[in-house]
Write a structure and sequence with these properties.
By secondary structure, the protein is mainly alpha-helical. About 75% of the residues lie in helices and about 0% in strands. α2 crosses α3 and α4 runs antiparallel to α5.
């Protein structure tokens, strides 16, 4: 037991999941700072409520659900405050799609003529905009 009464194995289990939690949070959050905030808050809640975790639920799933629920709880706050860059995020995604389309088109043009219609063309067709 540690000084706060949390068994050491709980710290170890949570620490082992941090890289995956960060990756997941980066998919949800608008930026790396917000993602790190999600992970830190989820880890703090996990330590505070480790005894309430259902035994049949793997630690990794439980931690992912904590991150996800924290993110969902913050979305209305972001939208209501007007600070939430929802429109900016959409514009960034569209720009990324345009850049990806351009890069794939360039790569396709470098291929031999008979190869230009293969799967790369299908990938290009699936990109929006």
């Amino acid at each position: 037991m540690t000084s706060k009464g949390v068994p050491l194995h709980v710290f170890t289990e949570i620490e082992a999941e941090l890289p995956r939690l960060r990756e997941f949070a980066l998919c949800l959050a608008p930026n790396a700072t917000a993602a790190e905030d999600l992970v830190q808050e989820a880890a703090a809640r996990a330590l505070a409520g480790y005894d309430r975790r259902p035994a049949e639920v793997p630690v990794s799933h439980w931690l992912m659900s904590l991150v996800h629920n924290l993110h969902l709880g913050r979305e209305p706050e972001r939208a209501a405050s007007g600070a939430g860059p929802l429109r900016e995020e959409r514009e960034l995604r569209q720009r990324d799609h345009r850049l990806m389309r351009r890069a794939l088109t360039r790569a396709r043009m470098m291929l031999p003529r008979r190869s230009q219609t293969a799967p790369l063309g299908a990938r290009l067709a699936s990109l929006p905009g």
